[in-house]
Design goal:
The complex is a heterodimer of chains A (about 775) and B (about 300). Chain A has about 775 residues and is α+β, with helices and mostly antiparallel strands. Chain A has three domains: about 15-20 and about 455-595, Aldehyde Oxidoreductase, domain 4 (2-Layer Sandwich); about 30-125 and about 190-265, Alpha-Beta Complex (Aldehyde Oxidoreductase, domain 3), CATH 3.90.1170; about 285-450 and about 605-755, Aldehyde oxidase/xanthine dehydrogenase, molybdopterin binding domain (Aldehyde Oxidoreductase, domain 4), CATH 3.30.365. In chain A, helix 10 (about 355-375) packs across helix 11 (about 380-385) and helix 14 runs parallel beside helix 15 (about 525-550). With about 300 residues, chain B is of the alpha+beta class. Chain B folds into three domains: about 20-70; about 75-190, Uridine Diphospho-n-acetylenolpyruvylglucosamine Reductase, domain 3 (2-Layer Sandwich); about 195-300, CO dehydrogenase flavoprotein, C-terminal domain (Enolase-like, domain 1). In chain B, the strands form four sheets. Chain B has a five-stranded antiparallel β-sheet with strand order 4-5-10-6-7. In chain B, strands 11-12-13-14 form a four-stranded antiparallel β-sheet, sandwiched between helices. In chain B, strands 1-3-2 form a three-stranded parallel β-sheet, with no helix packed on it. The longest helix of chain B has 20 residues, at about 280-300. Residues about 1-10 of chain B have low confidence and may be disordered. The chains are: A alpha+beta (about 775), B alpha+beta (about 300). The interface between A and B is medium-sized, with 33 and 32 residues.
């Protein structure tokens, strides 16, 4: 298939404003009489709030208003379970809970007022371990519940007992992963403006999901949705992180704005951001796997426990993705999986790129290598014996027959390109010197889009102007991933227009169709289909107009290079000229595209059904050098093969791979938010370490394309798949290099040097 | 005219307004500096490169009352070569130390350590004097200065004094400087000996990282190739950068190839007093101290 605009590495449509500094971010917004807000956070992770004395703070010059929980019309919000406090009411439940928010004429005055607020606390003994929270009879974090359990997702397939009976080798392993900060470069920022035009409140800012924030603000203010307007500014990254925390800030700023009748700006510092914003869930996982001597997987039993922290936030859905992906992309007849989330008084956890998959992939792909070693088989061979192919049945009983299952292809391509087999065997032998090399791999299948979490639909409005230029209104939002460019390319392809003729408008809940949240790597797949529909609707009207006016048949009409061609490919006129004529003839040049994804199903009782309508497949290979005397790990090279269906913008796909690999590397060897009794110990980037440019390995991206029948031009997903594999591949490479299996992330210097020397044994029948 | 950068108007920044009631001194000569120290009785916060101070006081710079900024003191930015010593002004940046060929030739360990500090931005702002006066046990230049027997010239209103760098540090972020004293320069003696040195910095990533542990080693050989003087110093594993004198003595007058590496490594590992912190556990540091001592000694043997 020949394309003119998609499948090409077009320059990003938002690049100019970003490199010149013209792009406005949340913290750049300025309005007349704008006030500066500051949040006072709790002093203790878990404490009763006995009294809040605002007198001294109120008397400070330039202080205009102070709010506490009392001023919040509806103090609890949440997308799934409404139990997140806008401000701590009777108790603070984690160290980032807000107590009060001050609005003042200057940031300095607000900061000083914060220090003058007297809060009387009664410190309480909290629960900081989800396994403790799980115990029957333990004190309740949310008193209205019967237990601290947020959610339990069971999955039952086949007969697990029988499966282990049929196994020759059974191994049991435990793995765990830490809290992870999304580490967007731009901390959270919102400005709430009261009574702008017909809206009660308009919130501008660094908002990942304008419609989720709209819902939260409306619910907190007890105001109608059509009175709450959210306008997204340019985003300095999000990675799943600017949802509930930003909604909470938007609600606080909105209350202050209504109270003072002035715009209120609330911008976090990095320390505030790390302390207040939700993290990726730490998991404690128990895996038991059984296989025959020749490497046939027979049974898998998995228990994964996620720390939800103080609130439910996204835990029910994050752990649901885990339950679907926990066995990995392997055909296993007998599976028993249980994933849980429990409340604790730790920082709450929510969405972060990966969304429940990086944890289980780390465990399950480490486990596959451990099993391979037990069976004295190479890791590629063991995987090839068990991976999904076309028509395979997944752990949830889904038959993979709607698309090309390309696991073998991605695995083979990455293995060959990285020279895996030769290196794996060479590195396995005794190596001289302190620096040992190793190579490791991991593979995954990943459900595209929301799946059974929610109805998956999105809308696009295209408005063709009289000069042949187009405004594009999307409900899904640019978060830095390149969505604007991809949508312009898809619209351009169908309308025969260069992408510089298409102007992607900022997401504004006033105009943009509510398309849910920009999450789950769904924007290209779901929103892209909506763009295609909107563009086709518009194109059909243009064709009809031309056919009627110029004695053409619609089938002959082609839109290309900004022109309209008819019979025998003769040029009729430019699209610009047509637009002006059509407008005069009263043709509607605004079109709507609404896409609803194919049907899915899920039985929550037994975890069976078709949770996603399509999947993507990936394989990453890590090559490392481990200094066994200092524990330093040098990741030399990452080879990343990903089936994206079709790359709408190959340069952008590579960008996603580079970024995802880098974040996976951080997850693998350095990132860790450390907590102690609910207190966060590393609240800035001097101590919360993320990789620097010097830590960046060579990255070899391999784009694999098997167009999906349900994707726009065959395109699927790439954002999250790139991140979920790295840590597991690195763990396997370290084991290959240093003969040391580390089952706890991050695999840092400490673990290499003083970590337990873990025995290979444990295989028994 | 310098344009004000966008979007940071509300961020507390250094401006004339902030100093109405307080003082911001920026002497241009040593004389002027002394006059300020003598004439001003209140507390002064001294700023050199600012890489620690500004970060530690981010968003509360207004809490610092009176400033003494050393950045216009060109006299403190000189590196002077003499036959028997090199003098490095306290305001010389890490960047300069890491780029100068003479430093590389004469004090390779110091040169390498300077190149390992932070990031290009930090190396461009941060100074050797700031590194010393901040007195973090993890200060990257401190072990190298100790192994080269550096001396520190301290000036004040009352005159000046010269102290051994090894006597300067008294605890984490603590030193012997008294109120009104300024570190003027670092004096490193030159000998005709053949030096053999090593620098090892271990950190959790490849750049922008505070050392988990570091080691500086310098051996000077006499004409018959026996070790005449030995210096081993460990950073980040004690309240101060720590010279391991027992280990140094153990290899004196030895032939380089005959050093008992194990013995030295054991001594080093025993003499340090590491703690558990975010950069590493005590257990890790003790084990790695052993390993990097072995490694450094093997390295110099092969030089």
């Amino acid at each position: 298939m020949e394309f003119n605009h998609v499948h090409k590495s077009k320059k990003r449509v938002d690049v100019y404003e970003k490199v010149t500094g013209r792009a406005k971010y949340g913290a750049d917004m300025r309005f007349p009489d704008m006030l500066y807000a500051q949040t006072l956070y709790t002093k203790y992770p878990y404490a009763e709030i006995k009294n809040i004395d605002l007198d001294k703070a109120k008397k400070q010059t330039d202080v205009e208003a102070i709010i506490t929980a009392e001023d919040v019309p509806n103090n609890k919000f949440g997308v799934i379970i409404e139990n997140q406090q806008v401000l701590a009411e009777d108790k603070s439940l984690f160290i980032g809970d807000g107590i009060a928010v001050v609005a003042a004429k200057t940031a300095k005055a607000a900061a000083r007022a914060i220090e003058l607020i007297d809060v009387e606390y009664k410190e309480l003994e909290g629960i900081y371990d989800p396994l403790k929270a799980r115990k029957e009879g333990s004190q309740l974090i949310h008193e209205e519940n019967e237990s601290n359990q947020v959610i339990h997702h069971p999955l039952r397939k086949g007969n697990i007992k029988q499966g282990f009976l049929e196994s020759d080798v059974i191994i049991k392993r435990e793995y765990d992963t830490p809290f992870i900060e999304q580490s967007y470069i731009e901390p959270e920022a919102v400005v709430a403006v009261p009574y702008q035009e017909n809206s009660t409140i308009t919130v501008y800012g660094s908002i990942q999901n304008p419609f989720a924030t709209q819902g939260a603000v409306a619910s907190v203010l007890k105001e109608k949705l059509n009175k709450i307007r959210i306008v997204q500014n340019h985003m300095g990254g999000s990675f799943g992180g600017k949802d509930e925390v930003v909604s909470s800030m938007a609600a606080r700023a909105a209350i202050l704005a209504l109270k003072t009748k002035k715009p209120v700006r609330l911008v976090n510092t990095r320390d505030q951001s790390i302390k207040e914003s939700y993290k990726r869930h730490p998991y404690k996982m128990k895996y038991k796997i059984g296989a025959t001597h020749d490497g046939q997987l027979k049974a898998m039993q998995i228990e994964a426990v996620a720390d939800s922290g103080a609130y439910a936030c996204q835990t029910p859905f994050v752990t649901w993705r885990s339950v679907v992906q926990a066995t990995g992309p392997y055909e296993v007849a007998n599976v028993k999986t249980d994933t849980y989330g429990f409340y604790t008084n730790n920082i709450y956890t929510g969405a972060m790129r990966g969304y429940g998959s990086p944890q289980v992939i780390f465990a399950q792909e480490s486990l596959m290598d451990e099993l391979a070693e037990e069976l004295d088989m190479d890791p590629v061979e063991l995987r090839l014996k068990n991976i999904y192919h076309n028509n395979s049945i997944t752990a949830s009983g889904q038959k993979l027959d709607s698309h090309q299952v390309s696991l073998e292809e991605v695995l083979t391509k990455a293995v060959e390109k990285s020279d895996f087999i030769e290196k794996y065997n060479r590195y396995k032998k005794e190596q001289t010197g302190d620096k040992k090399r190793g190579i490791g791999l991991s593979i995954s299948f990943r459900g595209c889009s929301l799946g059974a979490e929610a109805i998956d639909a999105a809308g696009i409005i295209l408005s063709l102007k009289k000069d042949g230029s187009v405004n594009l209104y999307s409900g899904l939002a640019e978060n830095g991933q390149g969505l604007k460019t991809v949508y312009c390319q898809i619209a351009g392809e169908i309308l025969g227009l260069d992408i510089d003729r298409i102007n992607f408008m900022e997401v504004d809940t006033l105009i943009s169709p509510d398309s849910g949240s920009t999450v789950a790597s769904r924007a290209t797949l779901i929103g892209g289909n909506a763009v295609k529909k909107a563009a086709n609707n518009l194109k059909n009207r243009i064709k009809k107009f031309i056919a009627e006016s110029y004695e053409q048949t619609e089938d002959d009409i082609v839109l290309k290079d900004g022109k309209i061609y008819g019979k025998k490919s003769i040029e009729i006129m430019s699209i610009a000229k047509m637009s002006s004529m059509a407008a005069m003839e009263g043709v509607c040049l605004t079109s709507y595209g609404w896409y609803v994804s194919p049907e899915i199903s899920w039985d929550e009782e037994i975890g069976q059904g078709n949770p996603y309508f399509t999947y993507v497949y990936g394989c990453q290979v890590a090559e490392v050098e481990v200094d066994i005397k200092t524990g330093e790990i040098n990741v030399l090279k990452m080879t990343a093969a990903h089936d994206v269906g079709r790359a709408i913008n190959p340069a952008n796909v590579k960008g996603q791979i580079y970024g995802g690999v880098m974040m996976g590397l951080g997850y693998g060897i350095m990132e860790e938010l450390k907590t102690n009794q609910g207190y966060i110990q590393n609240t800035n980037f001097d101590e919360y370490l993320i990789p620097t440019v010097k830590d960046m390995p060579d990255i070899d991206p391999i784009i694999v394309e098997n167009p999906d029948p349900d994707g726009p031009f065959g395109a699927k997903s790439i954002g999250e798949p790139t991140l979920e594999l790295g840590a597991a591949a690195i763990a396997n490479a370290v084991a290959n290099a240093a003969d040391k299996r580390i089952r706890s992330l991050p695999i840092n210097l400490e673990q290499i040097i003083v970590g337990r020397k873990l025995s290979k044994g444990g295989g028994q029948k | 005219m310098k344009k004000q950068s966008k979007g940071v108007k509300d961020r507390p920044r250094i401006s004339g307004k902030d100093f109405n009631q307080y003082k911001y001194f920026r002497p241009k000569s040593k004389k002027e500096l002394i006059r300020i120290i003598n004439g001003f009785q209140e507390d002064l916060t001294i700023i050199a490169g600012g890489t620690d101070l500004l970060v530690a006081n981010y968003q509360k710079l207004y809490e610092i009352k009176n400033w003494l900024d050393l950045n216009l003191l060109d006299e403190l930015k000189n590196i002077k070569m003499f036959d028997d010593k090199v003098e490095i002004g306290s305001m010389v940046t890490h960047q300069r130390l890491s780029k100068l060929d003479q430093i590389k030739e004469l004090f390779p360990v110091l040169h390498q350590a300077a190149a390992d500090v932070g990031s290009p931005q930090i190396r461009s702002r941060g100074t050797i004097g700031g590194n010393i006066v901040t007195s973090s046990p993890a200060g990257d230049l401190l072990p190298p200065l100790l192994i080269y027997d550096a001396k520190l010239k301290i000036i004040s209103g009352e005159g000046s004094r010269v102290v051994d760098a090894n006597e300067f540090f008294t605890g984490p972020k603590k030193n012997i400087l008294k109120k009104g004293e300024i570190l003027e320069k670092i004096i490193i003696p030159l000998k005709e000996d053949i030096y053999k040195g090593a620098w090892i910095k271990v950190g959790k990533r490849k750049a922008l990282i505070i050392s988990s542990i570091s080691l500086a080693l310098n051996l000077s050989m006499d004409r018959s190739n026996l070790i005449k003087k030995a210096r081993i110093c460990i950073g980040s594993a004690a309240p101060v950068p720590l010279r391991i004198k027992t280990a140094e003595q153990a290899i004196l007058k030895e032939e380089l190839t005959k050093i008992n590496i194990e013995e030295v490594a054991q001594i080093v590992s025993e003499k340090i007093s590491p703690i558990d912190d975010i950069r590493g556990t005590a257990k890790y540091r003790r084990q790695v101290a052993l390993n990097i001592t072995r490694k450094a000694l093997s390295e110099v043997m092969n030089q």
